[in-house]
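Dear H.,

Thanks for agreeing to be a second pair of eyes. The structure we're designing against is below in token form, covering all 437 positions.
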């Protein structure tokens, strides 16, 4: 069977026993129905999407990925934005938003910006093209499993859409001071951000893994309508396959090779440690200036809240609200919410699991948007260099705040939402003492 034909085979009613999935958010075992293009299968307990079927998934994601790569190539080849103030002009290219930070001894912030807006998106798209071409025209090899795993792992760290919002905020900030002109790269990068999101959404993970490595049957004793952990099983967080767990040695998925655990090891302890780290970093992120604006030789330090207040004074309420929500409200809410969820795992049993899971989903989704302020700083630092007339330099809070965003994202990833559904006796270790063929 050629890989491109696997979509037909995947949903045939006669394809062996029922295909099963253990929800990665609540651990509930369900049987997958036969799906047509455009349909989704969701967990009956928490409504998490288990499978989303697409029409011609390889061709669709391949076309979108190639289009996105073309848009990205244009974005790094032409001017991104320019401004003119009192006869003095300046223009920048996209990559300068990261490289300019190196001139001010901010290499870690520069790396974070470059990775999230150019390097990781480009890597993701190249891997998508490589993988889908393989599935269309040849037989996949072992290395393609690692490629598919890599796609899953870098998914959350691409922030082209957040960068575009940061660019718009930056332009609003300087619109009253200078004449601003959007370059070709701005529009192509906006198109790139949309195409990247469409590419990510077009990936049919279920079909892709079936085409790469088939689907080994779930253990014959697997029961639907029960948590996987109570049966000595776990669902792979990367490819979705149900695997047995054993007491000896490290466990790896039979299909993709991902490490497996009934629950993420020391999830609560690691999450709390990351939250404490983020809380400590959040103090200098707010006390110290995130950037310094020098106008006519007079430096003015700008803290995060100071920037919000300044925007309000200038009547830019919508932009002030964006910065306040992304840079103040979201980080604080995320710290409080994740802390409460960690406590609730120990203190709250058998109640409000769905409400807590929804709160976790929101927290996980909005965390990356706090990078808006970091991108605003990177753009203004690269763009505004008009000698003694006006210039912008990054402040010490830039690194602290970027670290807060990254650490809180790691905290959300580290937290195992399946713990919200566990009763005190649900997960029993050791689970299995021997392997079953």
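And this is the sequence the design step returned. I haven't edited it by hand at all.
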């Amino acid at each position: 069977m050629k890989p491109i034909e696997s979509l037909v085979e995947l949903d045939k009613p006669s394809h062996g026993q029922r295909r099963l999935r253990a929800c990665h958010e609540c651990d509930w075992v369900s049987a997958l129905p036969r799906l047509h293009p455009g349909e989704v299968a969701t967990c009956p307990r928490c409504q998490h999407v288990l499978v989303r079927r697409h029409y011609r998934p390889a061709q669709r994601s391949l076309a979108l990925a190639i289009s996105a790569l073309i848009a990205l190539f244009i974005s790094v080849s032409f001017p991104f934005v320019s401004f003119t103030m009192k006869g003095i002009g300046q223009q920048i290219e996209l990559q300068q938003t990261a490289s300019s930070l190196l001139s001010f001894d901010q290499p870690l912030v520069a790396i974070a910006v470059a990775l999230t807006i150019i390097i990781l998106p480009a890597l993701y798209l190249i891997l998508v093209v490589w993988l889908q071409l393989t599935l269309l025209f040849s037989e996949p090899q072992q290395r393609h499993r690692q490629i598919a795993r890599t796609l899953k792992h870098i998914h959350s760290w691409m922030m082209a859409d957040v960068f575009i919002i940061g660019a718009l905020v930056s332009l609003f900030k300087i619109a009253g001071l200078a004449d601003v002109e959007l370059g070709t790269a701005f529009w192509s990068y906006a198109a790139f951000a949309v195409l990247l999101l469409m590419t990510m959404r077009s990936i049919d993970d279920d079909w892709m893994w079936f085409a790469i490595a088939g689907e080994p049957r779930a253990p014959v004793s697997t029961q639907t309508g029960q948590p996987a952990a109570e049966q000595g099983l776990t669902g792979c967080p990367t490819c979705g396959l149900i695997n047995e767990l054993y007491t000896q040695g490290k466990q790896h998925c039979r299909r993709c090779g991902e490490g497996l655990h009934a629950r993420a090891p020391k999830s609560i302890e690691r999450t709390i440690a990351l939250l404490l780290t983020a809380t400590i970093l959040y103090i200098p992120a707010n006390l110290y200036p995130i950037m310094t604006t020098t106008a006519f030789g007079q430096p003015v330090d700008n803290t995060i809240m100071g920037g919000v207040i300044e925007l309000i004074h200038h009547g830019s309420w919508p932009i002030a609200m964006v910065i306040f929500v992304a840079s103040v409200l979201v980080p604080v809410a995320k710290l409080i919410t994740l802390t409460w969820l960690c406590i609730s795992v120990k203190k709250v049993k058998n109640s409000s699991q769905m409400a807590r899971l929804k709160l976790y989903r929101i927290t996980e989704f909005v965390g990356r948007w706090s990078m808006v302020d970091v991108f605003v700083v990177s753009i203004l630092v690269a763009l505004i260099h008009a000698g003694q007339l006006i210039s912008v330099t990054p402040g010490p809070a830039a690194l602290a705040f970027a670290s807060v965003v990254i650490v809180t994202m790691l905290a959300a990833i580290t937290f195992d939402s399946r713990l919200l559904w566990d009763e005190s006796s649900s997960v029993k270790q050791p689970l299995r003492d021997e392997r079953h063929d």
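Two observations from my side: Residues 3-56+208-244 form one domain. The CA atoms of residues 251 and 260 lie 5 Å apart.

Warmly,
E.
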